[in-house]
Amino acid sequence: MAAPPPITNTIRRLRFDANEMTQQELADRIGMTRQTVAAIEQNKYSPSLEAAFRIAEVFGVPIDAVFQWKAGETPQQRTES
Amino acid sequence: MSFREKNAWIASITTLVVWGYYFFEVWRAFELRSIDGLLVRFWICMGITVVLMLALNLLATRNPGRDFGAAPDEFERQVDENATLIGHRLRGWLLLGLAAACPWVSTMIAPAFPADPAGATAIFIANLILFGLVVTELVIELIHIVRFRMVA
Asked: How many CB pairs under 8 A join A and B?
C-alpha cells in the first residue's frame, strides 16, 4: 500500500464549524461523491488543485487553511510514522 | 454507498452467480462428455446478465437521470484506472497461461470426444478464454469494491 501523501487537512473541523455540514452536503457542493470527500478527509486521497480550491471556496477560507503541507518530512519518515 | 460502488457490487454478484453457473455447466459437459446445448446456455447467460445488470442498476439508483449520466469524479476515475491497469495485466498473464496450456488441454479434450475432437477442443479452449476474461472482470469489480470500502 502506498504511503499517505504528506498533506494534512482540517476539513473535519471546518465542516463542524460550518453548522455540522455533512460529507454529503460538501460533496454535493463541490460536485463529487460522499466517498471522495471521505477519502480526502481521511487523507487517503490527494485531491486535484481544482477540488482543493472548491473545498476552500465552500468554507470561505484560503486554501492553506484547509490543506497543510507537512514540510520537511521525507517519504521514508512518512512510512515509518 | 455511491452509485458506482453499487454498480460494482451488482456486477460482481451477477457475474459470480450467472457465470459461475455457466462454467459449472461447462465442467459438467466435460464430465458427461456431451457439449450439446452449451452454446444455447452461453446466450441465455449473456441475456440474463444484461437484463439483471440493467434491472438491478435501475433499482439501485435513487435518481436514474442523474446517476446514469454522471461522469465519475476524480477519485472514482483514479480507482477505475488502477483497477483497469491491474485487470489488463492479469488478463495478459491469464491469456498467456492459457495459450501455453493449449497443447495440454487438447490432449485432455480430444480423446474424451472421439466423435469431434477438433470441434470439442475448440469449444473448450474458447470457454477457457471466456473464463479468463470473466475472472479478470470480476477482479476489476472486486478492486473497485475494496477501494470504495476502504474510504466508506
From this structure: 37
For chain A, which residues make up each domain, given as ranges? 7-80
**Closest partner CB to B76 (pick from A33, A38, A47):** A33
Q: Write the ipTM.
A: 0.74
**B70 burial class (0-12, 13-18, 19+ CB within 10 angstroms)?**
middle
The model's pTM: 0.81
User: Is A51 part of the contact surface with chain B (CB cutoff 8 Å)?
Assistant: yes
Rounded average pLDDT over B101-109:
90
Query: Which pLDDT belongs to residue A72?
Result: 66
The domain limits of chain B are 3-150
Q: Which CATH number fits domain A7-80: 1.10.8.60, 3.40.630.10, 3.90.550.10, 1.10.260.40?
A: 1.10.260.40
Phi, psi of B63 (to 5 degrees): -135, 85
